[in-house]
Write a structure and sequence with these properties.
The structure holds two protein chains of two kinds. Chain A is mainly alpha-helical. Helix content of chain A is 47%, strand content 3%. In chain B, strands 8, 9, 10, 12 and 14 form a five-stranded antiparallel β-sheet that branches. The chains are: A mainly alpha, B alpha+beta.
Chain lengths: 289, 524
């Protein structure tokens, strides 16, 4: 210690720290006592905290602490609580047929909420987070349904999928490729006729021939009025919604070498209650029947 | 502090009282607190302070217990801050979170109110109405009741720890803590139904936050009112510092009128006999003894002075006994004081000469200025009052004209629109109806500006109309999912948007919300 250099301020009589800036010296006043006590209190608190809670890092884990606290255990308990709070409604959904759930406003609302969160996890990758779909992936908001739009039919579609190998009850249909059966000109004429049902084709002269070709080749599935058939999932061709793309070229392409979407069945993945939730949620989007 | 027996000073008993503010020059930056033992004062200001204490404490402790009938759908507590439900009730006024500006306005009014009071009558808030002042006063009542007045307390404090001292100290601190608990206890009743909370609190079944709040406020009340007292005002509170900047030469401050008091002497008769000129002050120290801040007002206006005026009471009592005019210490403005001082010192040419302020009969001369109440109505006071009143009137107008029915509309963001099978376009909206009265209502919702559009509530059968009626819960927000469908051939109608209109058919209260209808090609 440099005691012999101790410097005392003349005016206040307080020892200085020995630091000097342009002749100004810093007084070595004691820290306020409340501050010191607070500081000591924090040290005591830290020791207590280190004993009570997980703190010291070891090689593979940390010390456990006397209270046995773990943030993971807290989350687990919270999740269990949340599950327990839902238990009543969840059980009723599991045990009720879907019509009964639809008839009970409270249960229906619960299913819609549960379905909305299940949708984001399982369905959004193909159908989009807003269920608006895209080319080849149906928009679930509108009122155009390939396989039926009441809750029961939606449930069937979600549960067992479409053209899904892993489920024997899956919905199956296949549109033949007309490349071998019709000439390109005939396909163009058919496309012109299909488009003429809702819009003006590029060459109206082809419509008459197309109409005949449609009756011969397409009406068996899509219906004489081209409004499709839910029995076989044949789309309605006389409406504003085009799953595989709009326009004559898209129609011709689909006729020549049809693309078939595949949707997996979900009942074995997420279980029956969640499929019910999903069906009711999809039904609630605005196009449900 | 060493207690010394009182000395006789003429006919007045002299109190040994050293002000904490003595020797202001060269005072160390850090100083251990010197204990203050305020003597009991009596007089008109003390009586007024008792009254203020009674009123303010009554308001604080009793307000949560006032009942106010608001029908079955809202709590019947007159003043209630319902944090869980996010409602604030004040008698006939109910405030929703989005109306919080009313509270902000009240705070603005409180701020300007302080400015107004300070510029009109000085630090009246500090001296009479501040909770710190009121609670310290209350704690002093307890202290005096148990330990006696100033001298007894000083003796007790200086004495050794006898059984009697332990008992008295224990009783005092115990009662202080009880007051602290009652203070913290009253606070929580503002945030929940008071009778219910009282029952559950006593039964130890209330929420932990209630006990924590009471414990915290008990601690602060005990600490601030019992232990820290004047240090809160001097060291912690920012208001004295702000006020220091707000006082001017026309502000009312507690003033020692040394133009009539000096030269002070304890031996007035002897001095007079010797032909010396003496003032009215007999240096009895009564003003110092009663001061809760422990200062000597005769040193002049100072930061510590909260203008509680107890020194005025003490000095007036002494003046009465001596048969002199009251007001040696008085509320005075600096300008009046300076004028009188100039008179007494011949504009500073000579030391204070009390003979200059009195005529031969001992009556004050003509030129002595007394407090003139008209000084209160000066420009800045009127300006502060104007601002204060303007904010108040603005809030009053906002309160009277505010809507109790509000409609908010959120357009679906994903998907923004849906093309239906027949080519018509559908938009989804969430309508939030705020029914801000505690009565259930039926509200008619209708569409304005798209005559061909059809509206329906999600989950209900498609309607063909443009309006429908919904039931809304009392004092709640009710949400509806709405679908609006516009036929393909009428899409042009949607170009300039449309409005939702909510109307209460019985009161004709209404709210309109303008929004957009998005269709292919316009989506963003």
């Amino acid at each position: 210690m440099a005691d012999k250099h101790k410097h005392v301020d003349d005016i206040s009589g307080v020892e200085t720290t020995g630091h000097e800036w342009d002749g100004i010296r810093e007084l070595n006043n004691p820290i306020p006592r409340w501050w010191v006590y607070t500081f000591y209190a924090t040290i005591v608190w830290a020791i207590g905290h280190a004993i009570a809670y997980p703190s010291w890092p070891l090689l593979t884990e940390s010390t456990k602490g006397l209270l046995g606290y773990s943030s993971r255990a807290v989350v687990t308990a919270e999740l269990a609580n949340a599950k327990a709070a839902q238990a009543g409604n969840a059980e009723r959904i599991a045990s009720s047929p879907i019509e009964d759930i639809m008839a009970d406003p409270e249960l229906k609302q619960f299913a819609i909420s549960a379905g909305a969160s299940a949708f984001k996890v399982n369905c959004a990758p193909c159908h989009g987070s807003g269920a608006a779909g895209g080319k080849g992936f149906p928009n679930l908001n509108d009122n155009d349904w390939l396989w039926g739009g009441n809750p029961k039919e939606i449930y069937q579609t979600i549960a067992h999928g479409i053209r899904y190998d892993g489920d024997e009850e899956t919905r199956v249909s296949e549109m033949p490729a007309f490349a071998d059966m019709l000439t390109p000109d005939e396909m163009r004429a058919t496309a012109a006729y299909v488009l003429s049902l809702t819009a003006t084709p590029s060459n109206p002269a082809l419509v008459e021939l197309g109409k005949q070709l449609f009756a011969d080749n397409c009406a068996s599935c899509h219906g004489a009025d081209a409004k499709g058939s839910r029995e076989v999932g044949a789309p309605n061709l006389a409406d504003a919604i085009w799953l595989k793309g709009e326009g004559e070229q898209a129609i011709t392409d689909q006729m020549r070498s049809p693309k078939h979407g595949v949707m997996p069945g979900w009942v074995n993945r997420v279980g029956d209650p969640v499929v019910k939730d999903l069906a009711i949620f999809v039904h609630s989007l605005g196009g449900g029947e | 502090m060493h207690y010394q027996p009182a000395q006789k000073a003429g006919s007045m008993e002299r109190l040994e009282a050293r002000p904490i503010s003595a020797a202001r020059v060269g005072r160390p930056l850090y100083e251990k607190r010197r204990k203050i033992f305020p003597k009991r004062a009596e007089g008109r200001f003390r009586r007024f302070k008792w009254l203020v204490m009674l009123v303010t404490l009554s308001i604080y402790y009793l307000t949560p217990w006032i009942r106010w009938d608001r029908s079955a759908h809202a709590p019947d507590q007159a003043v209630l801050v319902d944090l869980a439900a996010r409602r604030f009730y004040f008698f006939f006024i109910e405030i929703w979170p989005q109306e919080f500006f009313f509270v902000a306005g009240l705070l603005v009014m409180a701020g300007f109110g302080l400015f107004l009071v300070t510029s009109a009558v000085g630090r009246a808030w500090c001296g009479y109405a501040c909770p710190q002042t009121v609670w310290v006063d209350l704690f002093l009542v307890v202290e005096r009741f148990i330990e006696g007045d100033r001298l007894a307390r000083m003796r007790l404090d200086a004495g050794s720890w006898t059984f009697d001292k332990v008992c008295k100290r224990f009783a005092k601190h115990a009662i202080w803590l009880v007051i602290g608990v009652a203070t913290g206890g009253a606070w929580i009743f503002y945030f929940a139904d008071a009778p219910t909370l009282m029952k559950s609190f006593v039964a130890l079944e209330a929420e932990p936050v209630a006990y924590m709040t009471v414990a915290t406020l008990t601690a602060t009340t005990y600490l601030f009112g019992g232990l820290m007292r004047e240090q809160v005002c001097t060291y912690m509170c920012p208001w004295p510092r702000i006020q220091a900047a707000m006082l001017d030469e026309n502000s009312l401050v507690v003033t020692y009128n040394d133009w009539r008091g000096e030269r002070r002497t304890r031996h007035a008769k002897r001095a007079a006999a010797l032909g010396e000129v003496v003032g009215d002050c007999v240096d009895c120290n009564a003003c110092v003894a009663v001061c809760p801040m422990g200062i000597d007002i005769r040193d002049g206006q100072q930061l510590e002075c909260i203008t509680c005026a107890l020194c005025i009471d003490a000095c007036d009592g002494v003046m009465d006994k001596l048969g002199r005019e009251r007001g040696l210490i008085s509320y005075a403005t600096l300008s009046d004081y300076s004028a009188n001082m100039a008179l007494a010192t011949n504009n500073g040419a000579i030391p204070i000469d009390p003979r200059r302020v009195r005529d031969g009969n001992g009556v004050f001369v003509e030129g002595i200025r007394d407090f003139d109440w008209r000084i209160i109505f000066r420009r800045r006071v009127i300006l502060y009052f104007g601002i204060w009143a303007l904010v108040g009137l603005g809030m009053l107008y906002a309160l009277v004209s505010r809507d109790r029915l509000e409609l908010n509309v959120l357009h679906d963001r994903n998907p923004q629109y849906v093309v239906e099978s027949d080519g018509s376009v559908r938009n989804g909206y969430v309508l939030k109806l705020l029914n801000m009265i505690p009565e259930p209502r039926r509200i008619t919702l209708s569409l304005d500006g798209m005559p061909s559009a059809r509206v329906r509530i999600a989950g209900q059968a498609p309607g063909d109309g443009q309006s429908f009626s919904v039931a809304v819960d009392p004092d709640k927000v009710t949400s509806f999912k709405i679908f609006v469908t516009l036929p393909k051939e009428s899409l042009v109608e949607a170009q300039s948007g449309f409005s939702f209109r909510a109307e209460d058919p019985s009161s004709h209260e209404r709210d309109v919300y303008r929004t957009k209808f998005i269709q292919p090609g316009t989506a963003k």
